[in-house]
Amino acid sequence: MTAFLDRCRAIAGADFVLDTPAGMAPFLRDWRGRFTGSARAVLRPGSVDEVARLVRLCADERVPIVPQGGNTGLVLGSVPDASGSAVVLSLARLATIRALDPVNRTVTVDAGVILQHVQEAAAAADCLFPLSLAAEGSCTIGGNLSTNAGGTGVLRYGNTRELCLGLEVVTPAGDIWSGLRGLRKDNTGYDLRDLYIGAEGTLGIITGAVMKLYPAPKASITALAALPSPEYALRLQSLLQDRAGASLTGFELMSALCLDLVARHFPALPRPFPATYPQYALLEISSSESADHAVQLLESATGAAFDAGIVLDAVVATSVAQSRGLWQLREHIPLAQAADGKNIKHDISLPVSSIAEFIARTEPQLQQAFPGCRLVCFGHLGDGNLHFNVAPPPGVDNEAFLVNQEAVNRVVHDAVVAFGGSISAEHGIGALKRDELARYKSPVELNLMRAIKAALDPLNIMNPGKIL
Amino acid sequence: MTAFLDRCRAIAGADFVLDTPAGMAPFLRDWRGRFTGSARAVLRPGSVDEVARLVRLCADERVPIVPQGGNTGLVLGSVPDASGSAVVLSLARLATIRALDPVNRTVTVDAGVILQHVQEAAAAADCLFPLSLAAEGSCTIGGNLSTNAGGTGVLRYGNTRELCLGLEVVTPAGDIWSGLRGLRKDNTGYDLRDLYIGAEGTLGIITGAVMKLYPAPKASITALAALPSPEYALRLQSLLQDRAGASLTGFELMSALCLDLVARHFPALPRPFPATYPQYALLEISSSESADHAVQLLESATGAAFDAGIVLDAVVATSVAQSRGLWQLREHIPLAQAADGKNIKHDISLPVSSIAEFIARTEPQLQQAFPGCRLVCFGHLGDGNLHFNVAPPPGVDNEAFLVNQEAVNRVVHDAVVAFGGSISAEHGIGALKRDELARYKSPVELNLMRAIKAALDPLNIMNPGKIL
Questions:
Q1: In Å, how far are A208, B16, B358 from B408, measured between CA atoms?
Q2: Which residues form the signal peptide (chains A, B) (predicted)?
Q3: Which strand ranges, in their side-by-side order, compose the sheet holding B176-179?
Q4: What part of A 379-398 touches B (C-beta under 8 Å)?
C-alpha cells in the first residue's frame, strides 16, 4: 500500500497524491451530499502522460480507478464506493484549452476544462459552444462527455455526444488512444468515440476532446405561453418547428405548480400573467440575422398559435434583457423545489408524441397510490425529457414521504418503459440507477454491454460498480 | 452443404434461397462492376425472425455471412470474396415502413427500405428526411446505416449516424436486440447504436431503425459563386455561416476543370458565367419561413461577399426551378468524369480550415510525380469532404495511367494523414481500403477495434475480411 502510493507520488508528484481524510473529503462526497465513499488516495495528475502511467500502475496492482471531473454528477457515478479499495483519479489539473480553430469551428480541450471556460473561449472567438446546464460553472467537459450531458440547448444542438468530433482516451491498460480528430466525416472503422461518450468512465479515461463550435446567433428572444394542457404544448411546439425550423432553440414545459413554487420562494421574480393557467411553455427563437428578425418571427408564430386556439395567453419579450427574466422563471424551479423541501426525482424521456398521454395516465396512478402527493413536472419538451418529481402532500413530513421512493419509482419507471421511454434521459446511471438498469434493460442488451466491458476492461478496474 | 441449404430453405422458403449462378449474379458483383465474388447461396429472408434463425444456423455451421442492402457501396463492403465460403444475406425483402410519427418526428423502417421511399414517406407527412445521395433510388436505409452514409445534406443535418435514434440488430449469435427507441435523450448505458452504425455489417445485421425527421423548409434557393481560390471559398463559407446559421444547407466546392468536364459532356446544361474562374461554390439557403426570405438572405449574403472582395461573380437563382438547374451542374460532375474516362478516386476529409492548404500543397506533389495529370477536385466543403480524383494527362491511355493507383494513393493519403484528415470520409472501408486502414490507423486504435470485433463476433462470421 505505501509502496503503491510512493510509486503514485513518483509519477504525479507528492503534492498531487492525497491520502489524508481532510484532503480527500471533497473528492469522496457526492454533489447532492447524500453519499460519502472511501478511497486509498486521490490522484491528481498534471498531464496525459501522468494519467497513462498512473493507470498502468493501477492495472499492475489491480487497483480500481474512479475517474472524476467536476464531481457534479447526480447518480453517484464519480465517487468511490465505501470499500476503500479504489483510487479517485481527478482530471481537474488537465485544464488547458489546447487550440481553437474558428474556421473549422472546433475547440480542442483537456478533459478537466470547466464547461463555462469552454463557453467563454468560444464567445471570445465570436462562436457559440452550445452546451449549457446548471452546473456549468463547476462541471468539466470530460464529465460532460462521460455522462453525455444534456441541458437546455439539446433541441437545436443535440447532447454532448453530438457536439464532439474527437477524443483522446487513456485505456485501462494505460495506453493513449489519440483520436483527437476535427473531422465532420470520417468512416474509417468502429465508432470508438461514441462508445466512450456516456460510458461514465467504465471503459477508459477521457483526457481530451475536440468539440464543435457554432456561429453565435445575433440574438435570442423568449416568450412565455399559457396553455390548457401538455397536449396543447405539443401542438404549439409543432407549429413553432414548422414556422421557425432550427431557429427554435428552446421549448421548456412547466406546470402551474412549478411557477407557484417559484412565485412563493422567489417573490422578486416577474409574474408574467395576472391569472393562473394549467401549463406554461417557455419558447426561445434565435436568429442569425438580427434581434428584430427574432422578435418578428416569435410574434408571428405566437400570433398564429393564438389564432389557432392553442395558447390562452402569451408574453413575448421585446429585448434580450426581458428574455433573461423569463428564463429565470425556468431556472429557479429546481431552487424553489429545494427550498420547498425534499422530493422524489425522476429524469425521464419519452417519445415527444407520448408526453401528454404519459402525464395524463401516470399522474392519477400516483394520486391513487400516494393521495395528495404533488407532481412537480417540468422539462425540455422538445427533447421529450421531463423532470418528473413527486413531492409530499402539503403538511406531510419530508422524511416520512421519502420512504415511498422505491414504490414511487416503480409507478413512474414502469410507466416510462411501457411508453417506450428512458429511465435516465440525461443524468446517466452511475451506482444510483444500476439496479433500475438491470431491471429494465433486455438480457440481450445487458449481455452486449457486458461483452464490451469485458473486452475493453478485462481486469474490471475502471469505475467498477457503475452502470453494470 | 446440401443439408445446410435445405435448412436455409426451411427457414426462408425455397424461393428465397438462391444458389444458381444466374440467380446469384446480381448479388455477387459490386456496384462499379470491378469485382465479382463467389458465394454458397444468397439468402433473402422475409422477416426479422427469419434473419435471426438464418444467422443462428450460420453460426452453428460456421458459415460466414455477407449482409447486403442495395449493394451500391463503393468499397467492396457488400459483396463476398472469391472463396465461395460465405452466404450473402440480402435485407431487400424487409421493405416495410413500420410507422411514422409526425409529432415525434420519427419514422421506423425495415432495413431494406430504399432511401428514396423514406424520403417520400416523410414528404407525404409534410416532413423532411434529409439524407440524400446519388444512389438514393437503389440504396437501402440499412446500408446507409451500416456505412454511415454522408451525401449533400450533412452540413445542416449530419451524417446517417446523426439521423438515427434507434436500431434493431440481429447479433452474430442470432439474438435480436430491440433498440428501436424514438428518444432524443437516453443515457442508459453503452452506445450500442453508434457501434453498429458504420460497422459495415461486421458486428451484426441491422434489421430496423428509428430515423429522425425534420420540418420541411418552405423553400431552398441556390447560388453559384465564382472564386479566385479554395482559400476564398473558406472565407465565403464562414461569412455565410455567420449570416445564415442553420439556413445554410449546402456548400459545394467545384474546380474549373469540374465545370469544364460538365460543359464538354453535357452541353445542354446551363453555363452560368461567360468567363472561366478558378473555383466555384454552389450555395444553398433554406428557409422555414418563405421562398422570399431565402432569396433575400442569399442575395444579401452574396452581396456582402462581393463587397468584401471574396467572390468574383455570382448568380443567384430566383426560383426553385433555377436552383435545380444549378444543382444539376454539381450532380453531373461524377457523370462527366465517367464519360471522360477512368481516374483514381479519393474520398477524403480534412479539417475545414486545412482544405486550401492541403490542395495547394498536394496538387504540385501530384504534378511532380505524374506530370500533366488532371485533378478533378470537388466536394462538400462544409463537411471538409473532398472527392479528390486524379485523371490521366490529356491523351494518355486510361489503363496505362491506372497502374499508378498505389503510388497516387500514397501521395494523397500520406498528405491527408499529415493534415489530420481521413482516408475515407463517407464511403467506408470494406475490403477495398482495408490495407490502407491498417497502414494509417494507430496500433492502439486497431487493437481496440479488434477487441470489440472479437467480443461481439467471437466466431468471426460477420462479413469477415471487411474493415479489419
A1: 34, 43, 15
A2: none
A3: B97-101, B106-110, B205-212, B164-170, B176-179
A4: 380, 382-385
Query: Per-residue pLDDT tens for A242-288?
Result: 999 999 999 999 999 999 999 999 999 989 999 999 999 999 999 99
Residue B457 lies in a domain: no
Give the residue from chain A lying closest to B242, CA to CA. A215
- ipTM of this complex: 0.97
In a domain, B437, yes or no: no
The C-alpha cell at B105 is 418526428
Cell of A293: 428578425
A388: left (phi over 0), alpha (psi -120 to 50) or beta: beta
Tell me which residue in B182, B214, B234 faces A103 most closely, judged by beta carbons: B234
Q: Which of A192, A215, A238 is the last residue of a domain?
A: A215
In a domain, A453, yes or no: no
> Tens of pLDDT along A157-212?
999 999 999 999 999 999 999 999 999 999 999 999 999 999 999 999 999 999 99
The whole-angstrom distance between A245's CA and the closest CA on chain B is 6
Contacts of B286 (CB under 8 A, 6+ apart): A245, B156, B217, B219, B220, B221, B247, B249, B294
For an interface test with A, the pick among B98, B187, B437 (most A C-beta atoms closer than 10 Å) comes out as: B187
B113 located within any domain: yes
Facing residue for B183 by CB, picked from A194, A287, A422? A422
- Same domain (yes/no): A228, A275: yes
Listed as ranges, residues in chain B with pLDDT below 70 are 1
β-pairing, B106-110 vs B205-212, is antiparallel
Asked if A426's CB is within 8 angstroms of B103's CB, the reply is no
Q: Are strands A106-110 and A205-212 parallel, antiparallel or unpaired?
A: antiparallel
Whole-model pTM? 0.97
The domain boundary residue, chosen from A308, A334, A360: A334
For chain A, give the percent of residues with pLDDT over 70: 100
Instruction: Give the gap in angstroms from C-alpha A165 to the nearest C-alpha of chain B.
Output: 11
Q: Which residue of B has its CA nearest to A167?
A: B445
Question: What domain range includes position B410?
Answer: 341-427
Is any Cβ of chain B less than 8 angstroms from the Cβ of A289? yes
Q: Are A128 and A121 in contact (CB under 8 A)?
A: no
CA-CA distance, B210 to B186, in Å (whole number)? 14
CA-based nearest residue to B45, from B95, B90, B110: B90
Q: Quick one: A303 and A198 in the same domain? A: no
